[in-house]
Amino acid sequence: MENNKAVKKTGSAKLMHSIGFKVGIIISVLLLLILGIKATSDIIYSYTTTTKSNEENKLEETRRLARVLKYDLRLLIRQVAICRLYYRV
User: Fold this and answer.
1) What is the per-residue pLDDT across 6-65, written as a single tens digit (0 to 9) for each?
2) How big is the CA angle at 21 (ends 15 and 26), to the nearest 5 degrees?
3) pTM of the model
4) Cα–Cα distances in Å, from 14 out to 11, 17, 19, 22?
5) Using CA atoms, how far apart are residues 55 and 67, in angstroms rounded to an integer?
């Protein structure tokens, strides 16, 4: 019985030190590394694209608000000028 246990341990140890096991571990580590790098680059790209898009949207909104304000100020100036002419202030 002791010989069987010794053989099993030896067989298990051989499996851990076999070339197939080492290649499997190397492939697993490489895949994990490659997929981690890919996920990181996707996250960075997505963040950059979203940030740039939001910045462009805010600039468009700011320009639109500036046009509205400019238009309103022109109307106000015209109204003040008309009032001065009418009331001769």
Assistant:
1) 545 566 666 667 888 889 999 999 999 999 999 999 999 999 999 999 999 999 999 999
2) 155
3) 0.54
4) 5, 5, 10, 11
5) 19
